[in-house]
């Protein structure tokens, strides 16, 4: 009897392991992973993207100073050129800016902010757009008409103008009560409200196709509520296009945040993102301190390019017509 109990417990304990191995083996044998392995450019872009995320996550361990802490800054170290130049000094690998901040450390912390705003903005835009797209496609009628007309009106304006409008309204209402954290939230909301339309229109089109299929009729027949049908049965069949849009929108969200910060309506100078660092360095470009703007600009360009390359590959890999 005890042997039977032990054997049953062993079988139950090995079931999750076999399931995990089965999922992993299916992922390695999938067409998407095969397409990924065939494209060396995509593999390089993925490696660069992962590297940037790791640098942002471990910025506090890799940076030689905290650029957000005024106690660690010294004006005596301002405008020091990169380490490999004649006037370079250790440990400032990429030089310093006008406040004595190490440019490499500022890039690491600025990249953390840019990625955090971009990822949070994409999540907010995705959640809002998916919810509205599901309602518009599933219920149709007046609900569909109202949501899609709002989306059509918003498409007539560039995303940066929508972000500027939301940002300006928040600043006019809250005024001096906006601290750095509040500005971060305002930027996320501004970016999210700028990019929800793409998700809504894509999900609506997919839902209008899926809701007429037999599995949706069967779910309605057994009495499942509409939210359960939309989230559990319809939404998983629309995840492919959503992943492509989210990847491309991540790059657009980072660019939008950098543009807002470059225009001076983003985060304050005490909490700089990559866009803020570029704006600060642009003031010293013609004075000879080129490294203050060059390295943050190169980091932003490399990050955007790698994410866009991943988005283009994912779009092609999930397109059944190209398989």
TrEMBL record:
One of its GO terms (cellular component) is plasma membrane. One of its GO terms (molecular function) is transmembrane transporter activity. It is a multi-pass membrane protein. It is found in: Cell membrane. Residues 111-311 form the ABC transmembrane type-1 domain. Its main location: membrane. CDD domains: TM_PBP2. The chain crosses the membrane at residues 41-64, 115-140, 146-166, 178-197, 217-235, 242-267, 290-314. Keywords: Cell membrane, Membrane, Transmembrane, Transmembrane helix, Transport. Belongs to the binding-protein-dependent transport system permease family. PANTHER family: ABC TRANSPORTER PERMEASE PROTEIN, OLIGOPEPTIDE TRANSPORT SYSTEM PERMEASE PROTEIN APPC. This is ABC transporter permease protein.
């Amino acid at each position: 009897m005890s042997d039977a109990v032990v054997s049953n417990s062993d079988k139950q304990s090995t079931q999750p392991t076999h399931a995990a191995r089965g999922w992993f083996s299916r992922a390695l044998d999938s067409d998407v992973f095969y397409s990924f392995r065939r494209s060396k450019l995509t593999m390089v872009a993925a490696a660069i993207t992962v590297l940037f995320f790791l640098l942002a996550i471990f910025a506090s361990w890799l940076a030689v100073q905290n650029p957000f802490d005024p106690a660690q800054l010294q004006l005596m170290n301002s405008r020091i050129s990169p380490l490999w130049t004649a006037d370079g000094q250790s440990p400032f690998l990429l030089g310093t800016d006008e406040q004595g901040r190490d440019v490499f450390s500022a890039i690491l912390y600025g990249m953390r902010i840019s990625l955090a705003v971009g990822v949070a903005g994409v999540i907010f835009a995705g959640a809002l757009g998916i919810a509205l797209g599901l309602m518009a496609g599933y219920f149709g009628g007046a609900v569909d008409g109202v949501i899609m007309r709002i989306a059509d009106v918003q498409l007539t304006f560039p995303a940066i103008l929508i972000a500027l409008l939301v940002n300006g309204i928040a600043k006019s209402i809250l005024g001096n009560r906006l601290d750095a954290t509040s500005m971060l939230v305002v930027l996320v909301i501004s970016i999210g409200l700028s990019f929800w339309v793409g998700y809504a229109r894509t999900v609506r089109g997919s839902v209008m196709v899926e809701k007429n299929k037999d599995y949706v009729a069967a779910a309605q027949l057994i009495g499942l509520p509409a939210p359960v049908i939309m989230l559990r049965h319809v939404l998983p069949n629309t995840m492919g296009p959503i992943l492509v849009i989210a990847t491309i929108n991540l790059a657009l969200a980072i660019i939008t945040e950098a543009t807002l910060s470059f225009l001076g309506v983003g985060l304050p100078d005490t909490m700089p993102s990559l866009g803020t660092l570029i704006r600060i360095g642009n003031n010293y470009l013609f004075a000879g301190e080129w490294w203050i703007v060059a390295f943050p600009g190169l980091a932003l360009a490399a990050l955007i390019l790698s994410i866009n390359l991943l988005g283009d590959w994912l779009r092609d890999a999930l397109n059944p017509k190209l398989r």
